[in-house]
Amino acid sequence: MLLDFSVENFASIGARQTISLITGKARGKSEHLLNAHRQRVLKFSSIYGGNGAGKSTLIKAMHFGKKMILHGYLDKRQMATNKSSQLWMDAPTEFTYTLFLNGKLYEYGFKLFWKEEKVVKEWLIEKNSRLEPHLVFIRDFAAHEFELNIRAKDPEVANRLSVYFNDASSEDNILFLNEINSHKGNLFTADSSFQYLRTIYRWFLSKLKFVYPNGSDLGRYSFINYPENHGDLHSYLSSLDIPISEMSYVEIPFEQAFGDVPETVVKDIETDFKELCMLDDRKDASSFEVVFRLLDSYYIVVASADGISSVKTISFTHGKYGTYEFKEESDGTKRILELLEMITSPENDITYVVDEIDRSLHPLLTEELISMYLSPERPNQNQLIITTHESRLLNLKRLRKDEIYFASNKNEQSEFVRLDKYDADTRTDLNIELSYLNGRYGGIPKIIKRGDT
User: Fold this and answer.
1) Quick one: which of 212, 15, 45, 20 has its CA closest to 99?
2) What is the distance between the alpha carbons of residues 341 and 223, in angstroms, rounded to a whole number?
3) What DSSP letter does each residue of 231-299 carry, written as one string?
4) 78 and 180 fall within a common domain
5) For a designed S-S bond to 440, which of 23, 105, 333, 435 qualifies (C-beta 3.0 to 4.6 A apart)?
6) pLDDT digits (tens, 9 = 90+) for 367-411
7) Where in the sequence is the domain holding 32, given as residue range(s)?
8) Are residues 172 and 58 in the same domain?
């Protein structure tokens, strides 16, 4: 699970900003919490703010870090430094993730220069139950500090690890976490003492999922992969007043699905499938299915290490009123179908990050989706981080104070403040929505009406 994420010098973000899911001074709603050692962790966090405040920027920064870890190199098209001053334009950008995986706490981060396309620092720290740090490795090109503190049981494996780390320490355009998880044969099966390096990498690969108004992570699981849950799915759709009574799968030619897609994108899709094939729990399988959305359609791809073997699409029956393709559904229905994964999927330890969750949704549907996710009748071990303008959620009878962040832009730099830090003495009976809309917490547009100028 994610404990916190920090970023410095990314687009509208200048000074270091942190989104923490560690509980604060708020009390109550224990069903909203998870455990991590002696710490209590939030299952939900919401980010409010006016247009241009930096909400989406924070999500993009978190996603950029994931892509960098999985791909191992810097893509300048995906990021930019803060431009509010020359100091920020010349400064490095830093990403830090604190995770709790398999009973252990890790801090992983890296720092890079955008202009030079160079990694200047990368580190991994493990912390015990008393939060005492142990440095696993560090690559600091500025300080010329390169240290690897992994004790492999097998001498041959220890030597291989040393060689890989030394090679990575001579290249300032890659990440060691990516390198050690890329095509290293039986390294992890030969010695399990440092399996956590794979566990951390796989968390980014398959446990951290991003959903945007126009699509979501490619090749990740969805509720559609679990036909045994379709009964529950139809029940949820009915409660949300979505008139879909049945889903069916129709096999189509490869060309029909990918004919209008650029060849480079198709290659990226095939690369993602190969990465999924590398996962230990899939190596012995002859094939596997992946559901993803491409352009304005959903597809189920059956693939193996040899490539894509078949493609199916999904059709939706609206009772006696006909059958429709996904692209024929309304924008709101498409959005609901995508977001329902966070409620219907049987997977655990997933961190969902949803940008503009209220896009294309009626306010009552947004409210109900969050209520479904947080319902004690549907317990899960997942996390959900959203950006939203839906002020109806700002109700302390529904959310804890530490589940609410406000974003604002001051002097072209985004700032994020959590409600329990901003106003620790806020009464639980206070109308947070009204206070927010009246500007008490910032994060709202400063509108100048005609005649006021």
Assistant:
1) 20
2) 5
3) HHHHHHHHHTT----EEEEEEE-HHHHHTTS-HHHHHHHHHHHHHHHTSGGGTT-S-EEEEEEETTEEE
4) yes
5) 435
6) 999 999 999 888 889 999 999 999 999 999 999 999 999 999 988
7) 1-213+350-453
8) yes
